[in-house]
Amino acid sequence: MKKDIEIGIFGGTGIYDSGLLTNAEEIVVDTPYGKPSDSITVGLFKGRKIAFLPRHGKKHTIPPHMINYRANIWAFKELGITRIIAPSAVGSLKEQVEPGHFALPTQFLDFTKSRQGSFSDNGKVIHISVAEPFCPELQKVITDEMKEQEIKIHKDCTYVCIEGPRFSTKAESKFYRTTGAEIIGMTLVPECQLAREAQMCYASISTVTDYDVWAEKAVTAKEVLDTLSKNVSTTKKILTELIEKIPKIRNCSCAKALEEAQF
Question: Which residues participate in catalysis according to the annotation?
Fold first, then answer.
């Protein structure tokens, strides 16, 4: 088993193949929590060892509430990965956060219902701190790169994570807007908090696909995929330039997340 991979990428909706890697090979990783979403593609990109895993499977066959988040994070950990970049699709809860823009979540509100959100098990209880759920070092690299590429990104966003796979009712969508959150999606939780438990750096790059249903226009899967398809090349360009700028030495506290989290 390779244990020297440095950076992991979770491919979100619309990004099923990174297309970035040379000397690429597919590997299968078994975990104590079952199988990850798919095989993992590992390879090189500008001298950095990268792993790519499509969150929903290569053919988008796994709905968000059935993703084995624990297996996905554990598999990346087994490969030695310390940094995770996680593209995803989100809806907008604010007029100014327009479809086609990007958003950088720094907080989340968890409205999921049935997901396994911890590696805690019998004999081990982990009270992880997610006061600041995302790696500040990775977030700075992302915002700097977006500025350099002149790509519109909304910083400091709060992400409402719902169970899915259905979209919200109008009443729900209007309620979520009252929380002050900017974006809404189905995959951030528990992915980001499991990464923190695994003492891995994690940051999400969210593509805004629609205005959710509060805007009096029903959200459809086709609308989401149409917007995503237009932005896939932009997302890949971001990743292409971003990866080589990620510091090789971690200067954040993510690697010490368990020091005060376990009894």
Answer: 210, 212
